[in-house]
């Protein structure tokens, strides 16, 4: 699964604040996510995060002119 910085991921389980979408802050062996609802940051092992992701919303890349 390809997860990039600044992507928005929708998780199967929601955060305790009720929001289920997170923005990706860091990738590697661990993935750092920020809750879109309350702003809390969570760090998960890549394997566990990939199992919990329902969908990925990519930011549109603008071409350099």
- What's the tally of helices? 1
Task: Label the structural class.
Answer: mainly beta
Which CATH-level-2 architecture? Roll
Specify the biggest β-sheet: 5 strands, antiparallel
Q: Radius of gyration, rounded?
A: 12 Å
Instruction: Give the CA-based shape.
Output: globular
As laid out across the biggest beta sheet, the strand order is 4-3-2-1-5
Q: What's the helical proportion of residues?
A: 10-25%
Name the beta content range: 35-45%
Q: How many domains is the backbone divided into? A: 1
Q: Would you tell me the overall average pLDDT? A: 91
Low-confidence stretches: none
- Say how many strands there are: 5
N-C termini distance: 30 Å
User: Which fold does the CATH topology refer to?
Assistant: SH3 type barrels
Please specify the SSE layout and strand pairing:
Blueprint: E1 8-11, E2 21-26, E3 30-35, E4 41-45, H1 46-52, E5 53-57
Antiparallel strand pairs: 1-2, 1-5, 2-3, 3-4
Q: Your description of this structure?
A:
This protein has 65 residues and is mainly β. It has a single domain, classed as SH3 type barrels (Roll). 11% of the residues lie in helices and 40% in strands. The chain contains 1 helix and 5 strands; from the N terminus they run ββββαβ.
List keywords for this structure.
mainly beta, globular, 5 strands, 65 residues, 11% helix, 5-stranded antiparallel beta sheet, SH3 type barrels, 1 helix
Overview in brief:
The protein has 65 residues and is mostly beta strands. The chain has one helix spanning 46-52; strands at residues 8-11, 21-26, 30-35, 41-45, 53-57.
């Amino acid at each position: 699964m390809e997860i990039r910085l600044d992507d928005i991921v929708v998780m199967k389980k929601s955060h305790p604040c009720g929001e289920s979408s997170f923005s990706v802050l860091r990738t590697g062996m661990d993935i750092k996510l920020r809750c879109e609802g309350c702003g809390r940051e969570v760090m998960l092992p890549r394997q566990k995060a990939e199992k919990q992701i329902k969908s990925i919303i990519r930011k549109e890349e603008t071409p350099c002119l």
